[in-house]
């Protein structure tokens, strides 16, 4: 009797989880299916339709489309800003938790990071535009990368702080007793252990940078526009190209999707190597 009850509970739990998964995944299925429809089929709400790739063709190969440039801009800005964020956040976390700073310095900096992270990015975009224009960085990769690095650094500092804090202090002290300098301790002792944290933080930072819209809307023009701006351009005043917008949205999912597939294996490998060491 107990076994039957537990089985029914497990079946009910799985049904509920599958229901929630369908609710979460339905918008993705709808967008992907819309990308393979014609404009007429989409507006008529057809469920059964003949797949069509004209939306993708227009997005990628049409001479009036800037989506390929938008895609490359997002890759450059996302990768470079993620690298800068991970570098600064890891160094700052190691300094705060392993270099004997007073407690008030640690708490003040982390508290300020939380406050800054709660500030809406659009409130900073105007000031950044004025400042970057004064120094010649408006509509440049450098200006947008610096803005993205500033936006995502507080979150990365908190995440890397958790991973660096959990590194056994005995390992760091043993390396210092053996004569390792601080850069050597960080590179050979701390980084191999916090690789899962680097992967997780890098994924979130890249995805947030990839999806960031209001700051890029203010700081960029056609030459440096990113994917979110490119998708938004398909909604014009008099018409909305739904199929092209859906196709561009589907393509925009691919980098984060493949990054998660790669990072999943990387995180498991990093956890295993850290446990062995």
From TrEMBL:
<feature type="transmembrane region" description="Helical">
    <location>
        <begin position="109"/>
        <end position="129"/>
    </location>
</feature>
<keyword id="KW-1003">Cell membrane</keyword>
<feature type="domain" description="ABC transmembrane type-1">
    <location>
        <begin position="71"/>
        <end position="263"/>
    </location>
</feature>
<dbReference type="InterPro" id="IPR050901">
    <property type="entry name" value="BP-dep_ABC_trans_perm"/>
</dbReference>
<dbReference type="InterPro" id="IPR000515">
    <property type="entry name" value="MetI-like"/>
</dbReference>
<feature type="transmembrane region" description="Helical">
    <location>
        <begin position="185"/>
        <end position="210"/>
    </location>
</feature>
<protein>
    <recommendedName>
        <fullName>Maltose/maltodextrin transport system permease protein MalG</fullName>
    </recommendedName>
</protein>
<keyword id="KW-0762">Sugar transport</keyword>
<feature type="transmembrane region" description="Helical">
    <location>
        <begin position="75"/>
        <end position="97"/>
    </location>
</feature>
<keyword id="KW-0472">Membrane</keyword>
<dbReference type="InterPro" id="IPR035906">
    <property type="entry name" value="MetI-like_sf"/>
</dbReference>
<dbReference type="GO" id="GO:0055085">
    <property type="term" value="P:transmembrane transport"/>
</dbReference>
<feature type="transmembrane region" description="Helical">
    <location>
        <begin position="245"/>
        <end position="263"/>
    </location>
</feature>
<feature type="transmembrane region" description="Helical">
    <location>
        <begin position="15"/>
        <end position="36"/>
    </location>
</feature>
<comment type="function">
    <text>Part of the ABC transporter complex MalEFGK involved in maltose/maltodextrin import. Probably responsible for the translocation of the substrate across the membrane.</text>
</comment>
<dbReference type="GO" id="GO:0005886">
    <property type="term" value="C:plasma membrane"/>
</dbReference>
<keyword id="KW-1133">Transmembrane helix</keyword>
<keyword id="KW-0813">Transport</keyword>
<feature type="transmembrane region" description="Helical">
    <location>
        <begin position="141"/>
        <end position="164"/>
    </location>
</feature>
<keyword id="KW-0812">Transmembrane</keyword>
<comment type="similarity">
    <text>Belongs to the binding-protein-dependent transport system permease family. MalFG subfamily.</text>
</comment>
<dbReference type="Pfam" id="PF00528">
    <property type="entry name" value="BPD_transp_1"/>
</dbReference>
């Amino acid at each position: 009797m107990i076994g039957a009850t537990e089985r029914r509970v497990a079946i009910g739990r799985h049904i509920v989880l599958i229901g929630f998964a369908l609710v979460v995944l339905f918008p993705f299925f709808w967008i992907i299916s819309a990308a393979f429809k014609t404009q007429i089929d989409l507006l008529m709400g057809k469920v059964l339709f003949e797949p069509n790739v004209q939306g993708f063709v227009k997005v990628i190969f049409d001479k009036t489309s800037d989506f390929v440039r938008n895609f490359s801009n997002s890759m450059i800005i996302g990768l470079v800003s993620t690298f800068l964020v991970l570098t600064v956040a890891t160094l700052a976390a190691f300094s705060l938790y392993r270099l004997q700073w007073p407690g008030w310095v640690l708490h003040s900096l982390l508290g300020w990071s939380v406050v800054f992270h709660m500030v809406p990015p659009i409130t900073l975009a105007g000031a950044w535009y004025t400042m970057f224009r004064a120094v010649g960085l408006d509509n440049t990769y450098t200006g947008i990368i610096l803005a993205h690095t500033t936006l995502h650094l507080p979150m990365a500092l908190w995440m890397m702080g958790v991973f660096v804090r959990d590194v056994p202090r005995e390992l760091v002290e043993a390396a210092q007793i053996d004569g390792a300098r601080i850069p050597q301790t960080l590179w050979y002792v701390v980084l191999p252990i916090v690789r899962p944290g680097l992967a997780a933080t890098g994924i979130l930072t890249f995805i947030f940078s990839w999806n960031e819209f209001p700051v890029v809307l203010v700081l960029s023009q056609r030459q440096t526009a990113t994917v979110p701006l490119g998708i938004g351009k398909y909604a014009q005043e008099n018409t909305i190209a739904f199929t092209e917008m859906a196709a561009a949205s589907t393509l925009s999912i691919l980098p984060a999707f493949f990054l998660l597939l790669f990072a999943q294996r990387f995180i498991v490998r990093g956890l295993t190597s850290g446990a062995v060491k």
